[in-house]
Amino acid sequence: MARQISGFNVKHVFIFIFSSLLYALCQMLLSNIVMQDDLWGKFAVQLTAHYVVVLTMCVADYNLLLFLNKHIPYSKNVSYRIMADMVGLTLISLALLWVFDWMIYKILHVPPTGLPPFATKFALGMLTNAPILLVFELIHYFRSEQKAIADSEKAKREVLLFQHETLKAQINPHFLFNSLNVLSSLIYLNPQNAKKFTKALSRSYRYVLSLNQQPSVTVAEEMEVLESYIFLMQMRFENAFTFTVHEDSGSESNKIVPLTMQLLLENVFKHNVATEEAPLAIQITIGKEYVSVENQVKPSSNADKSGIGLKYLKKQYQLFGKDIVVEHTGDQFIVKIPYIEP
Q1: What whole-number distance in Å separates Cα of residue 207 and Cα of residue 227?
Q2: 193 with 232: CB under 8 angstroms?
Q3: Which of helix, strand or coil describes residue 301?
Q4: Could you give the CA distance from residue 335 to residue 313 in angstroms, rounded to a whole number?
Q5: Name one GO cellular component term (predicted).
């Protein structure tokens, strides 16, 4: 493994010094051919001068690359990026030419006699600088591709982990124990509801098991399956909560992460008190930009902290470049879920 000195990889520094020196030598040879100048008589001076120019161009081009990556990335507009590269290249060449002319004529007092005209020096500057910027762009491109591949693999692992944790949460012994207790009571008290309860429980588990190859589902699909979960909760809590849905027509086809709605409702029931005397009000709003879950804040003193919570959903949506919005207004708790696909 290459050693690190002040954050720089020694191997990379050596490669850069060697390649930039070799490039400066090639540019010096080209310049002497064009200018028909004496190469060997001023070899050390010319090589030093060309190397300083090459290093300065490298620094300028690298900073130009950082600036363009931030403000005009290729993913935004390829044509604009290429045009920006050309404009930046021209401005850097003009600026460096002005600086070096000022140093040569004003500081070192070298007479202009015998030196090439401005147009020739500018052409040589562009010819020298263009390959440097091109190399930086290629390096950035290949590194971006490698990072994209690595991020893709990481995302796949995160999705698999999420599905695994979600499955464990749904087959939580506590959740299953409560469901079976309700079912056991219904069998004697209301066989018809017991049959409905069994179907709803089966449907919820079947939905979880079907998500292995689905990174996203429509809001309509989520809400359809959520009906089974709400039915299970109604059988368990009876009249201890109210549930309303407000829909914006056309938004049901937008996509979200599977089980988002069920996990959010699980959080509501885990962390709040729900009684028939003071029902817990839960509201879902399917809007144009978000689908939101809003509930009254009635904190439970012994809230169950286990299982998947809001942090898992936040992490999952970050894989799609989206951020969940959480608002706590004192007596209301609101979670806004962005759509990952329109």
Answers
A1: 12
A2: no
A3: coil
A4: 11
A5: membrane
SS3 state at 14: helix
Would you place residue 172 in the very low, low, confident or very high pLDDT band (cuts 50, 70, 90)? low
> What own/partner pairs with CB < 8 Å and gap ≥ 24 does 211-215 have?
211/163, 211/166, 211/258, 211/259, 212/163, 214/258, 215/159, 215/257, 215/258
Chain segment 275-284, per-residue pLDDT in tens: 888 899 999 9
pLDDT at res. 161: 65
| Per-position b or e across 1-37, b if 16+ CB within 10 A of its CB | eeeeeeeeeeeeeeeeeeebeebbbebbeebbeeeee
Q: What is the set of domains in the chain, with CATH numbers?
A: 4-153 (no CATH), 171-338 (3.30.565)
Straight-line distance from the first to the last Cα atom of the chain, in angstroms, rounded to the nearest whole number: 46
Contact indicator for 194, 185 with CB cutoff of 8 Å: no
Q: How confident is the model at residue 286 (pLDDT cuts 50, 70, 90)?
A: very high
Q: Is the Cα torsion angle 6, 8, 11, 14 positive or negative in sign?
A: negative
Backbone angles phi, psi at 311, to 5 degrees: -65, -35
Separation between Cα atoms, residue 293 and residue 333, nearest integer Å: 8
| C-beta contacts of 179-186 below 8 A and 24+ residues apart | 179/232, 179/236, 182/232, 182/235, 182/236, 186/235
pLDDT at 146 over 60: yes
Please, are residues 193 and 235 in contact by the beta-carbon 8 Å criterion?
yes
Are 46 and 35 within 8 A, CB to CB? no
